[in-house]
Every structure is written in C-alpha cells, then in structure tokens.
Design goal:
The longest helix is centred in the last third of the chain and has 18 residues, at 340-357. This protein has 483 residues and is of the alpha+beta class. Helix 2 (59-68) crosses helix 9 (340-357). The chain is built from 13 helices and 22 strands.
C-alpha cells in the first residue's frame, strides 16, 4: 500500500515526486512510457518565464512567479542546466506598445519586482540584442526570464526522487482506477497498485484518468507547437529570450537559444484532434520562419538541424487545475500548459499542501539528499579526448558534442533504467549536433547492447508507439531556397 501514487512522470509528476520524497512516505510514480519526460515536458521552448506572462489573480500568475524564483537553487542541487538570460517582448507599432504597458502593469500586479522590469527603446534594445530588427519600436525587458533544458530538468527531478525512495514504475499505463473504502486500486498493464492518495498529473491524458473516477469536469485538448533548431553557429544572434507582443491573432514566435547554445525558433499554435500527433509540416514551419524573421531578420536557414513538435495540454477551464476532486484523496494537477514548466516546482509545493489539508501526515526525513550530480561533463578547448580512446573518460562517442563513453555509462547506471538511444540523448546531448546522429547512433547502440547484455539489433532509437512524421530538414532547405 502506497501513501501516494502519482500518475504521469512529466515535469509536474516528477516535481511532485521529488517534493514528496522529502517526507517519510511511500510514493509511487507511474508512467506509461519507458522513460520519464517523453510528453509535453520533452518538447517545449524551455523558457523559465517571468511572472508577467499570466494574468494576475490566476493560479498561473501566482505559481509562475513563485516557480521562477526557485530555479537557481534547484539547479545548484540537481545540475540540470539553467541560465538567467533575461527576455524582451518586442513592439513593432503603437498598438504593440500599448500591449507592453499592459504587460508591465500586470507584472507589478502578480508581484514582479519593479527593479526587474522596464520598457526600453532604441539603443537600449540594440545594446542587449544587436541583431534584432530595426523595425522594433520598443521592448518590455524582464530580467528574471531564463532558459533550461526541460527534459534534463524533469530527468533530474525524477532521478533525485527515486534516489530518495520513490518507486518509479515505467511502461505501466493506467487502464482503470477503483475507489475502495480506505484506498484506491490503480490497475496498470503490469499490476494493481493500492494507494491512499492519487495525484493525476497525466498531462494530455489527465481528463481520461479523471474519467476513470467520474471526476472529469474538464476536458484536455492538445495544442501543437512546432519548432526549428539551428546549429550553434547561429547562437550568437540572440542573448536573451525574444518574444513578440501578443495580439488577438497570435502570441508571436519566440527566438531563443538552448542551454547548449543552439539557436531555436517557435512555436506556432495548432489545435489538433490526436493526442499523440507531434508531426511537423512545411506550411507551419514556413510560417514560423517568416514570423521569427520579424524579430531576428538574418538567421541562416541553411544552418537548420531539425524540426520537432510538442503538445500543450490546454484545458476547457483555461487555468491550471490544482485541486482535490469530489472524491477525497484524488487530487488533480491537470491542464498544466504554459507556463507549466516554470511553475512546476511551485505546483509541487501546492500539491503537498493539498495532501496535508486532506489528512496526509507529513513527517520530514532527516536523511533526504537534495543533491544530484550532473551527467554531462563540461569540456574546454584543452579537452584531450579522441575517438576510440581506451579511457572511457576520453573516448569520444558523439564527436559533434564531444560526449564521452564515460558520460553514457553514467547515464546508463543511474537510478532510472533506460534502453534507447533517445534516452541517452536526453541525458547527455549526444545525437544533437551537426551530423544529427549519423556518426554516433551506432556507437551508442553498441554501448547499450554491451551494458544491458542484449543484441544490438534490439536497441531502439525510441520506443514510443507513435513515430511522428517529421519534416525532412534537407527537403525543407531545398524548398526554402527555391522560394
């Protein structure tokens, strides 16, 4: 019998699991895929938003600003990669400038410090972003905005939770839940799990989980966002996260960098029917490129590396759903779309508070270990690695990103079992460079094969049921160059 079972090992479920692992509780984290962070938490912009992005008086507004303030300490403890870059919201006309004024006022209402925000003009903008469009009239500057790797953050949270006693149950899709007298019985494809409390953090599928107990007084609909990632050669074009002033037609396209220095643009917003459709298309990617050029005109599309898409779990309630349902002990953490990544550590604390209010006894552990060492090893220009070196710490497996055998072995020997090359990618940044895994894929497979004692032919790139149709970047370049 578990005290608490969390359904969904995305960033919300993993943050809750880590927060609960600070207490003397038996906790299960249940995930339908073979790894954590394979849904919305894997594919998003990776922005740690300023509090201004959500309306004052909403849960989004309250929890976004709280979550933002927690990232620096979390990164010190968990080593997932976080940079406070600041961010600009650009105005291109007088109407946009009025929007900036509204953003400024809302920022103050949600509690953003006045010293953290200002509206700037002309040379002030160019001083921060030299390559920004000359058409920009003004910008709302928020210094507390940052960037992170969303999947490395989720992995770090889940890994630390497991190290502190949480049971992670992978490949355990929930197919039914029954309320007994004093507990719930959760039926997965593998087993039946008994639990006193349940947290529904199932992301895009949260309404389906809620329906198992007739508590689905909301619906989740997928909103697809597509992105383009460029090589690091374009990373110098932006120093902050650059947004466009939102209007009734669009929230604009973001230009930013990843924590590893790749230039990235997106997303668009498409309401779709299928909850697993993360394909990309020429029409939408072309739109994103055209919109991004409004902010940064001179990026080179010949330096594109790949396209990808993610699904935001929009809810019919429009705000985060964080509450105990009509069934005592069944708690919803649903409809967590943007700024969900930013808000996740604050959401976790809110959920723990709800559990306490529902009667769960919280007794802190004296031996909770907040520390989780990084997998990636920073390498300077003097790094003496080479291909096929006998020393794993110097044996380069991914030459584009200089990922070593030692880093891959470290990832394989952590507390979350992994078995695909994409799982290695999410932990080490292998496969993400200029050659897009053409060199390292087979080398990673051999290491996984050796360490797991399985044939190389059984090592998969990814093992999700649905394989998306991604726009081929070479065909994309050809089409764009023709135009």
């Amino acid at each position: 019998m578990y005290d608490v079972s969390i359904i969904g090992a995305g960033v919300i479920g993993s943050a809750i699991a880590r927060e609960l692992s600070k207490y003397k509780l038996s906790v299960a984290l249940i995930e339908k895929e073979s790894d954590v962070s394979t849904g919305a938490s894997k594919a998003n912009t990776g922005i740690v938003h300023g509090g201004y992005v959500a309306k004052a008086g909403t849960l989004k507004g309250e929890l976004c600003i709280q979550g933002n303030s927690m990232y620096e300490k979390l990164n010190e403890e968990l080593n997932f990669g976080y940079q406070k870059t600041g961010g600009l919201v650009l105005a291109f006309n007088d109407e946009d400038e009025k929007t900036l004024e509204k953003l400024y006022k809302n920022a103050l209402k949600v509690g953003q410090p006045e010293a953290d925000i200002e509206i700037i003009y002309g040379d002030q903008i160019k001083e921060i972003e030299p390559y920004v469009s000359d058409q920009v009239q003004a910008a709302f500057y928020c210094r507390s905005i940052g960037i992170t790797s969303p999947y490395q953050f989720t992995i770090a949270l889940a890994e630390n939770a497991v190290d502190n006693g949480v049971d992670l149950k992978l490949e355990s899709e929930v197919i039914n839940i029954e309320k007994k007298n004093e507990y719930f019985e959760i039926e997965t494809v593998k087993e039946k799990v008994k639990s006193r409390y349940i947290i529904n953090a199932a992301g895009i599928y949260a309404d389906q989980i809620a329906a198992m107990l007739d508590t689905d007084d909301f619906k989740i609909y997928p909103m697809r966002g597509e992105y383009v990632v460029f090589s690091k050669s374009q990373g110098h074009l932006v120093n902050t996260v650059i947004f466009q002033a939102p209007n009734p037609k669009t929230k604009g396209v973001v230009t930013t960098t990843t924590t590893h220095g790749n230039f990235m643009i997106g997303p668009n917003a498409e309401e779709i029917d299928k909850k697993n459709d993360v394909s990309t298309s020429f029409k939408e990617i072309k739109y994103i490129i055209d919109q991004a050029r409004k902010s940064i005109p001179n990026f080179d599309t010949n330096r594109m590396l790949r396209t990808f898409a993610g699904l935001r779990p929009k809810s019919t309630r429009e705000d985060f759903i964080i509450e105990e349902s009509k069934i005592k002990g069944f708690i919803q953490a649903a409809g967590i779309d943007s700024p969900g990544l930013t808000s996740s550590p604050a959401i976790a604390k809110r959920i723990v508070k709800l559990l306490a209010e529902s009667g769960l006894e919280l007794s802190p552990k004296k031996d909770f270990n907040s520390q989780r060492p990084a997998i990636e090893i920073k390498k300077d220009e003097d790094f003496a690695g080479e291909i096929d070196h006998e020393n794993p710490a110097k044996n380069i497996i991914c030459r584009c990103e200089k990922v070593t055998e030692a880093e891959i072995l470290d990832a394989l020997n952590r507390s979350i079992p992994i078995k695909t090359t994409d799982a290695i990618k999410r932990r080490t940044w292998a496969k993400t460079g200029e050659c897009q895994a053409n060199f390292c894929e087979s080398r990673i497979k051999k290491i996984i094969s050796r360490e797991l004692s399985i044939p190389v032919s059984e090592v998969e790139n990814r093992d999700e049921d649905y394989v998306p149709e991604r726009l081929d970047v070479y065909e994309l370049k050809k089409k764009l160059n023709k135009n």
